[in-house]
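ENCODED BACKBONE
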Amino acid sequence: MRRERFTDPIELMRLAELAEKLGVSEWTIRRWVKAGHFPKPIELSEQTKAWRRRDVERWLHERSAEAMDA
């Protein structure tokens, strides 16, 4: 059986870390996700969710681009 190697590791962020980095509450992030204004997390287990760092960085970049266009 051939083993695949991951060349680009996925960096994940848990909710508490994400809230701290963005300077908002965990509930704010949950509301943004529910409203469709923030990337959805990936489900690692039934009770464990995390966000891909690249998805969050893309979201931040899009928001800063929108702010510059305003």
About this structure: Residues 53-69 form the longest helix (17 residues). The chain has a mean pLDDT of 90. The chain has one domain: 12-69. Strands lie at 12-13, 42-43, 49-52.
